[in-house]
Alkaline phosphatase family protein
Amino acid sequence: MNNKVILVVLDGLNHQVAHDCMGYLNALIEQDRATLYPVISELPSMSRPLYECLLTGVTPAKSGIVNNDIVRLSHHSSVFSLAKQASLTTAAAAYHWMSELYNIAPYNAVRDRFTDDPSLNIQHGCFYHMDHYPDEMVFLDAENLRQQHNPDFLLIHPMNIDDAGHKFGLDSSQYRNTARGADIILSNYVDVWLDAGYQILITSDHGMNNDRSHGGILPEERAVPLFVIGDSFSHQPTVMQQTELCGNVCQLLGLVDHGKAYNSALLNKQPEFIRQQPCNTSIKTSASTNTNNQAEKSENSL
Ligand SMILES: [Zn+2]
């Protein structure tokens, strides 16, 4: 596979709220254009540790990014670093902690908010540091980056759903309506991105609880959605681990020897991919930790 990829991380989005409130994405599911998989977040169910998990495939306990106050560069290869090594173009419209993990730490807003430096892992960036920075602006920042730089990998990371959860809790109209708002914004972009040749993944780092926080092991804190849109996905039932997302993005980008675990059942085995294999050898699936998936219906496994 050799695709361009957009990864949308809707910070703090609980799986059930995504399932119930995001009508546009559900419309794509009803048209067999998208699939929703439930994912159980790694622990602790906190932002910075799980940004590292999503972008490197390494659990917080192993990465050392075990709370939000650890301000340093990642010690592991990431989608950004691996893509850059392969001479692909990377970009992100994201919270400033992403810049701290993969570009420069600590974040200096004057220096780092607008980033254009091919030597950095995130080569083209528009970062923000206020949790109420509007999601609408984050998507506009991302679309500007996409149109300006045509990135192979683009991370889009809005914060307003998490912000609403901290202010009003999981079971609140404000939290649900912020998720509905993100769904409406996405409806303006998804077809544009598909037409531009992107495969799209939409997920979250962690969920939310009714104490207006997250961090523990409650199901509502750990259950997050993974929507996949595009013809490089199998759209078949499988059980996806949060640690596998990084490897799956690497596979989609066509990166070789990335060393990351991935779930081969998530991906479509395209005819040209099969033809590229040597004769009389089966397609290597050993990197998958879920080669024989449990074939659970995604909506029923939570
Ligand atoms: Zn939060």
